[in-house]
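Re: that chain you flagged

S.,

Sorry for the slow reply, it's been a week of failed gels. I finally had a moment to sit down with the sequence you sent. For the record, here it is as I used it:
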Amino acid sequence: MTNEELEQKVKRLEEQLTEVRIELLERKAEQIPLSYLPYQVKIPDNLENYYTIDIDGSIEGLYRYTNEIRVLFYLRGLAFKTKTEAEQYLKKSMLLFKLHEWTEEHNGGWTPNWEDIKEEKWSVMYDDKNKELETYVNYKKQDFLKLPYFKTQELAEQFIKEFGDEIKEVLC
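Prediction finished late last night. Pasting the structure tokens below so you have them in one place:
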């Protein structure tokens, strides 16, 4: 057998080995229950018809961008089906920024200490039945809230007076 024939035989064996490895991986993948697979966001086919928010706050069509950039906008939550959705998102994010800035300024550097179950931590909730914002106290369970926590009930009430109508209009 010549050197060339040996090299061809080695190449065929390597290809066969690669095929066997692929088959083994496919079998292993089939054995993994769907519940163990991480969630994958599905990308819509028509992203060119979506909108985004430009740095100056204007609403732009995603048709201006490459598909790769459109997908990045989508995965970051910055691609919207309609101009109205984009405008609402912009209002919401600007309001939340303003609310958190106000709270940081008025709390005087205070942040909730969740290890201290005796410390009062005040927040604001929306009562759907009465269509009103209310203060409530929390001691040990950190809720996943859009609105911040306050050092005192008085600050939470002042927050409602200052921003209540705007919060109800944009967030509720």
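What I noticed first: Helices lie at 3-31, 67-75, 83-106, 153-171.

Talk soon,
D.
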